[in-house]
Amino acid sequence: MLRSPLLPLLSSIALILLWAALAYSLQSRYLPTPLDVASAFETEFTSGALVFHLGATCLRVLGAFCLALLFGTALGLALGRSPKANLIFDPWLIFALNLPALVVIVFCYLWLGLTETAAIIAVALNKIPNTAVTMREGARALDPSLDEVATIYGYKGWNKFIHFTLPQLEPFLAAAIRNGLALIWKIVLVVELIGRSNGVGFQINFYFAQFDLARIMVYTLSFMVIVGLIEVFIIKPWETRARFWRGDA
Amino acid sequence: MMKFTFASKSFGTQTILAPLTLKLEKGTVTALMGPSGSGKTTLLKMIAGLDQDDARTPKNPLKIGMMFQEPRLLPWKTVQENIELAGPVRDLLQALDLDDAGDLYPRQLSFGMAKRVAFARAMASQPELLLLDEPFTSLDDARVDLMRTMISEAKNRLNIPVLITTHDRADAEAIQADIYALEGRPAKIRKLIDA
Asked: Domain range holding B42?
């Protein structure tokens, strides 16, 4: 029973029932019932607003995610492979890690204006240090004895990366992607709340001003469902395939 | 004939190999013997271009197949894919008694099997020189015989020099190797037996 795939489903249903029980017993405008949220969902969906704003946020998440993964991975690998570079740039990384997300967002908007580019760069800059730290550990864990095998059989550059390096990095990459997605979508909402005129963050701010908690929940839950679907249908299958050779998938 | 000349080789302040010259004939097996730490593996790595002597002698341009002391298979590739990294598999699986192992992953192999796969990979590269670091270690008697046969076949079929390191003189004699010893500190090379 403990391993049953039904358990997470039952647990989710229990959470919804708990919410419903609380909402119906309190009868407060500060905690809408599941039916209120469902009704708001229908209105937002049929008007097309939900899809439009979700789409805008997803595009920002995708853009920032790709940038953060690309630059964070490159930086992490460079620092993990070169102790000298790590010694020089480690303080920079610690500084970047401790920089509040809000400060980075404000500076990006001030320097680049209230633009789409500024929004995406602000989110990516917030995530790059975390990705770099994870990938630096991955680079440190690379097996040097396999480097010798690569050299003997003439594997260099991209070919070596694909056959020898990437498979060793996959567990770290999976961790960076999972944590990245969780962090990025939260920061994207802040970026939208401060400086964009569309997206889930903008809508949450808009309905906050109107005290419309049902619609705030519609946008929040919809986006959480999308992130969950990405986890279930993209990240987990990829991880399973990547770990197949370990025999622990 | 292939001739390798190296300057001394040091690790930190300790010189482990004296300057040396090693000549290898095509179609022969040469065995390097010596105690642990005498520099056998280091010499093999210098020949393979994985390490350099103190004079930074440039790597030779030969195509080399090398089997390391540990199999060093890529755990995310099957046996077949591991061998294909170096070149076409051809009849190597059969020849090394690995017919049914092509689709297995390294974690599913015994150490002896993994070692044979590593040998197959070294052979698949169709090398001009075959380097085998302790090829008989951790093999049972039957597999030692198989490995001896394979080394002899490799030498004859490809008509290339084969250089092995071993602790066991009986193994070197069984494959009719020219036997060299690395002796002293820093180690000097001395020919013991002509095959």
From this structure: 2-63+127-193
